[in-house]
Amino acid sequence: MVWDGIRQRSERDVVARHQAQIGQLAMLFATENLEAPTDWAFEEDHHIIVVHLGGRLDRMECEFSVGPSGNALPSRGDVWMIPAACRYAALAQGERAEFVELSVPTALLADAPLTARVQHRDPFLFGAAARLAELMRGPGDDLSSMALHAAGDALERHLGQ
């Protein structure tokens, strides 16, 4: 059963975590161990976009306060969109998950509503997220930093269209 705000939320077993702020976008690349059932939950004042980069999940149940709910196993390249002020909870279990999580201010989308989605496909968004993850876990030299900012700027423009 997905987290309902009442039962205690399960611990997250984060194996790797890298963060960056580029322009208006906050970015997080993470790898999580999912051998034990793991809760993910959001209800933010900004949009959250999660891009699945890899790993294996055996089961995942998700629930939006407004939007699609039920069983949905993410595949490499799948995008979850969680609108601002929308309650989202998921319970996942499997081997591990690698993902990029983007925090997107509503103003970046000119305060237009974002539709809750699961297993959405956006090849540009996936490619940019994969490149951002690679750069965030890289050496952190000047060239990598410039490439990270260029990729982040391009992603910000893509989302703002």
Question: What can you see in these coordinates?
Answer:
The chain has 161 residues and is of the alpha+beta class. The chain has one domain: Jelly Rolls (Sandwich). The chain has two helices and eight strands, in the order ββββββββαα. Strands 1, 2, 3, 4, 5, 6, 7 and 8 form an eight-stranded antiparallel beta sheet that branches. A hairpin with a 2-residue loop joins β1 (13-22) and β2 (25-33). The mean pLDDT is 92.
Q: Which stretches are poorly predicted, pLDDT < 50 over at least 5 residues?
A: none
CATH class annotation: Mainly Beta
Total number of helical segments? Answer: 2
Q: What structural class do you assign from the helix and strand content?
A: alpha+beta
Classify the helix fraction into a percent range.
Answer: 10-25%
Q: How many discrete structural domains? A: 1
Distance between the termini: 37 Å
Total strands: the figure is 8
Order of helices and strands: EEEEEEEEHH
Q: According to CATH, what is the topology?
A: Jelly Rolls
- Overall spatial form: globular
Strand content: 35-45%
**What's the architecture in CATH terms?**
Sandwich
CATH superfamily: Jelly Rolls
Largest sheet: 8 strands, antiparallel
In angstroms, what is the radius of gyration?
15 Å
- Average pLDDT, rounded to a whole number, is 92
